[in-house]
Amino acid sequence: MSFHQPICCKCNKQMTCYKNGVTAVEKAGNRDYKAWSTDKYKCDICGAEVLTGFGNYPMMTDCDENFQEFVEMKKKKEYYSF
Predict the structure, then answer these.
(1) Quick one: pLDDT at residue 79?
(2) What is the pTM of this model?
(3) How far apart are CA 45 and CA 59, in angstroms?
(4) Would residue 2 count as lying in a domain?
(5) Residue 14 domain boundaries
(6) Do the domain assignments include residue 1?
(7) Helix runs in 15-76, H state only
(8) Rounded mean pLDDT of 25-48?
(9) How many domains does the chain have?
C-alpha cells in the first residue's frame, strides 16, 4: 500500500514529516477514549500542521489498565486530542 505525503491546500506543496510517534487522544463526549500514535507533518512555507498516519488500531483504549496514567503522562509531552 502506498502512502502519499499530505499536501498543503494553501501552498499546493507536499508537507514534510516533522515528527513520528506523536500521541493523539480520541474523545467520546468529554472523556478520553482511545490513544493513537500518529505522524506530524508541517508545511515548510506557511507552517500549517497536520496529524496523519494513524495505525489500524489504537495504542490503548479506556478499557486498558493504566490508560488514564498513560494519557496524563502524554499530556506533559506533545499531545493532541480530538
Answers:
(1) 83
(2) 0.85
(3) 32
(4) no
(5) 7-81
(6) no
(7) 67-75
(8) 96
(9) 1
